[in-house]
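Hi R.,

Here are the chain sequences for the assembly we discussed:
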Amino acid sequence: MRDERLSVMMFTHSTVRAGAEEYMLMPPADWIGATFAHTSPVHPNWRSAIDRTFRPMLS
Amino acid sequence: MDLTSLKQWLTMLRFGKDLRQRQIDILHSHMFFSSLLATPVGWCSRTPIIIEGAHGREAWRKGWKDHYFVDRCIGRMVDFYVAVSAANAQYLTTVKGFSSDKITVIHPGSDLRSFDPDRQAPPGLREALGFGHADPVILVMGRLEPQKGHHILLDAMPAVRRQFPNVRLVCAGEGALRGELEAQARSLGLDDMVRFIGYRSDIRDWLALATFTVLPSYWEGLPIAPIESLAAQRTVVATAVDGTPDVVVDGKTGLTVPPGDPVALAEAICRVMSNEDLRLNLARRGRQWVIENFSAENMVSKTERLYWKAWQRCARKTQNARRILMPSEAMK
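And here is the predicted structure of the full complex:
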């Protein structure tokens, strides 16, 4: 059964140059279920932030 | 992005399948190339809400790339754009031709709680660089790439040094121009006063060492470096490009000069160096300004409000009865 949270997919092509990194600073609100997708290698500085904040999908 | 790569296309097919399987409500992509891929995939996958984050003027678009046909085609699939600054919003409307109704300005946030104005530089840091105890230190934070304008700052430094012989410059960041910039510093006779320290994760320590910072860029989206500098209560001399004046407000939180002008940059640096009251007042007001306008909490709260507004609009349009339980405080 689907939950009652808004389901958000954050997508960046390049996590090496720039993109959604600022959104990794804080976990989203309880009413948002966020997933993070990316098509290029994740910058090591942001790995733990992504794991903490999002459900990583692609790599 | 390589659209000739089979792997890229397979990834996007997988991405579309995941969007459907996970029943994603909002697809939020960032910057041009991400959106070029994600928006059509999201639209084909019938994702209810598509949001694009624009992170600045696309200065790489020159010659045949300086056309926006593709952007406008894809733009028809986009429900909302997030611009990082007022200048960025204007770029989206006047250059790309997007409707202002679709655009929301949300400044990128930073975790500013960890920037302490009273932080002390680690013992021995000055000495390790060969700097004297009272030498004023200018810090520039940014990749060593043409965009950041380091060579203009180096061109400005001889004039600054004539007035302030013990001034020192620290360049934090790495990039393709490092060798070229080091050679420029040597040719200008600045090699005893300029230090290239590479990429640093301990930037708070370097801000503690700095008297103030400089951002000599040719273009920016919404630069994080001056936000962090002001959070550490170090004023900024910056070029007035794109979103930078949203952070470095001339005469209020720092001084701004035109890009690519070493004379104007040297004058502004000398003004900040010669007037301590001005420098400290700009720094104090700057810290207050960024805490009020550029905190992570501020960004997250505005983003949540946009998601909520988008969802309400979508629910009305599609008569989607699914109820999202949103905390009341976020709706304010």
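The interface with chain B takes residues 2, 4-14, 18-20, 22-23, 25-26, 28-32, 35, 37, 39, 45, 57-58 of chain A (CB under 8 Å). Chain A has one domain: 1-15+29-59.

Let me know if anything looks off.

Best,
T.
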